[in-house]
């Protein structure tokens, strides 16, 4: 039996007055409410629904809304209502049926007394709202979607919130000045760098479009940013989000099209920025470690274009200049989201360039480290474990990873079957691999790319949103299609490109078994050869990224016998699960 009720009324003065007279808790009780017209929706929480509805009725941006649903529960308090408001905002945005009108004032993710008991009620409230047509999908289906994972309505943790607030306050100071600025947000895989970048985009747009007749919650994290002077400061700014990787860029652009405040936001390649008609006021650069230097690019036309852009921007094709130089030349204020341990090709800007940038921003107090693990449920312990397993100093055993699954398989068919089972149960379970097999199937001649233990598999057919494609469960994703994405379970194939040298007993990269041609070629333009040590760094970076895709678990299949023995000593052989 549920203790909550959902009150329905029209979004009109007379309906608000009638409800105030009829329902005492409409005026003085913590509630959560939804206002909508079948297309747009606004979610809020308040201690006085009567007063808040009257304020909303004065808002020009909400004049078209028609219906109100108010969630009332005798056990509600302010903390529970903030939590439910945050949950409904995130789920509505991830479901995609409605366009969400909320601002990013500072969605909370704070613990409070008896939160777990409230969570059970929240699930019941969700199901009731779903039965009334407010949601089209279940919570697991929503949480597995890009709309949810890349939503600008994520609840930030403390260090993310501090970074966002500090950067925004810095922009408020810097925007009226003539000098340029640079900030860096640095973090390991899964610390939420992309989410921070998307959140910043939405927050800047919200401030620019702020309706002063609409009340801002005084205790929200970013409430002090919503003032008249700031609105004028951010209004009309040219803001862009730069994403070097094609798949992630198109996924983010797709999400932005569902968010009214971001519908026309620019999601760009570095080439787009360089070729833009006007300079940008603010550029946020996601996966900045994938920006490239002067080298052979992914396509010959891009190599030629690289030189043309550098000459146009700087007057000469100086081979020491890179895409980061382009972006800083075209933007007054640049914010980099960065993890130098995810650089995977010789064309990527060298880590030492970013080391200098980090030193520069540290001295200016514009460097923000993210350390809290937001993706992997095994936490930082798993991240450290995965990193050291792909090193010459492996751990003696497995740390306490709570409920996180890590398992070694000796049979690829068995691992694939486990992935299928986990996908049926949780969704988003996929096979991924290092670039240790040639892409033979691209020739459409019936050949398979990966053949092991009687199992035949092909690389991903789609290079855009492969994870959600219909054939993904029977294919293998590469670093270029999964970097920046989350899975529930990852089955990682560590191929013959990474092995243990039997003489030195150290890790080595096998160039003959590494088939990413752009990942091992020399950079003749810069006069730099890709050494064996360089290649080993790229290959280990690839596998460290792949090993951190799974939120709930990671399964492993290792080709090299000596490296497989190392994993077996630490993990133990695979065991059948009930």
UniProtKB/TrEMBL annotation:
PROSITE patterns in UniProt: GIY_YIG
Signal peptide: none
UniProt-listed InterPro entries: AAA+_ATPase, GIY-YIG_endonuc, P-loop_NTPase, SLFN_3-like_DNA/RNA_helicase
Domain of life of the organism encoding this protein: Bacteria
CDD domains the record matches: GIY-YIG_COG3410
Boundaries of every GIY-YIG domain copy: 28-103
UniProt-recorded name of the protein: DUF2075 family protein
Origin organism lineage: Bacteria, Bacillati, Actinomycetota, Actinomycetes, Micrococcales
